[in-house]
Design a protein that fits this description.
Layout: H1 2-20, E1 39-41, H2 66-78, E2 86-90, E3 94-96, E4 99-108, E5 111-120, H3 125-145, H4 157-174
Length: 177
């Protein structure tokens, strides 16, 4: 009888511990629409114009219309002084095995000055945990490399592949390689 009682108490205690276990910190959640997504910006001393950081949402948006881009470049060329041209481009939304990855890139005079996620969805806690370290790493590598020729993050191959594909589509729109 003592063994049954001890066994029952151990089972109830184990079940209570299991139900109280938190598998991840909800403050690092990167699920679409739940928090601000990671972004990276070049320091002000390396960029001729300080780009605005973007607080991206999970919804897809479009890049600046071609007419606005062309009128901005016409205005800078007609003023007589060469002003840097700053444009933001939205990459394609890439569906990966674990969610959608979409990148937003700001280019200033042919240099990547800001890069952020427009979408970085993760539907399970493990994917959210992976994205919490892979996202900032991919963004910093992009600023360092100034291209889509970056290394994948170990343990985040799907996120890395989707990121590079979306990044390359944004750079293609910007006319960069």
């Amino acid at each position: 009888m003592k063994r049954i009682l001890a066994s029952l108490l151990a089972t109830v205690g184990g079940l209570a511990a299991l139900l109280g276990f938190k598998s991840h910190d909800p403050s690092i959640s990167l699920a679409s629409g739940n928090s601000t997504l990671p972004s990276a910006t070049l320091p002000a001393d390396t960029a001729s114009v300080t780009p605005a950081t973007s607080a991206a949402s999970g919804s897809a948006s479009t890049s600046a219309p071609a007419s606005a881009s062309s009128s901005a470049s016409k205005a800078s060329s007609s003023s007589g002084t060469a002003k840097p041209t700053k444009h933001t481009y939205l990459g394609s939304a890439i569906q990966t095995r674990y969610g959608v990855v979409q990148v937003r890139v700001t280019v200033n005079s042919g240099k990547i000055t800001d890069v952020s996620f427009a979408q970085l969805t993760a539907f399970d806690p493990r994917s959210q945990q992976i994205n919490s370290y892979a996202g900032p790493t991919l963004l910093q590598e992009t600023l360092s490399a100034q291209s889509a020729q970056i290394s994948a993050v170990s343990g985040a191959s799907y996120t890395s592949e989707g990121y590079v594909e979306s990044l390359q589509s944004a750079l293609d729109k910007a006319g960069l390689r």
